Amino acid sequence: MPETNPCMDCGACCACFRASFYWGEADDCTPGGVPVGMTADLTDFRRVMRGTDQKEPRCIALMGTVGTRVHCAIYDRRSSICRSFQPSWAEDIPNEWCDRARLAWSLPPLTPDIWTAPRDFPKAA
Ligand code: SF4
Ligand code: SF4
Fold it and tell me: For residue 30, how far is its CA from the centre of ligand 1 (angstroms)?
């Protein structure tokens, strides 16, 4: 992850959407997978990260303060849905869901130059 990765001072998507995935991605089926204790059953075949299926979502694994400084406590073990979610312009294309999540937290959508311009990290609250 480059030092300029804007996700590290965002986290909006982890506190905006339901993060659900095939049940077999959890570590009671796949060693090293998503810690099953951080999940809840959604359907017979899908699980959801705890906290993301509530009215005001916030994933149980999200550490820190949205919009200031965050990290995922299970980054190396996160599910496929989390791995596939791309920040806007990371691959030279926008992601409207990234933009929507940021706007929901009163953060401006990312612009392409965010990936190349030097930035100061925000001060901790
Ligand atoms: S909303 Fe976008 S910028 Fe923020 S953490 Fe998610 S992917 Fe990264
Ligand atoms: S598991 Fe990590 S990346 Fe996925 S929603 Fe939770 S905090 Fe975000």
Answer: 27
Query: Within 13 A of 105's CA, how many CA atoms are on the CB side?
Result: 23
pLDDT band of 117, cuts 50, 70, 90: confident
Tens-digit pLDDT profile for residues 68-79: 999 999 999 999
Per-residue CA distances from 23 to 16, 20, 27, 119 (Å)? 21, 9, 9, 39
**So where are the chain's domains?**
6-115
Ligand 2 is surrounded, with C-beta below 6 A, by 14, 19, 49, 59, 61-62, 72, 74, 78, 82
Q: Whose CA is nearest to atom 3 of ligand 2?
A: 82
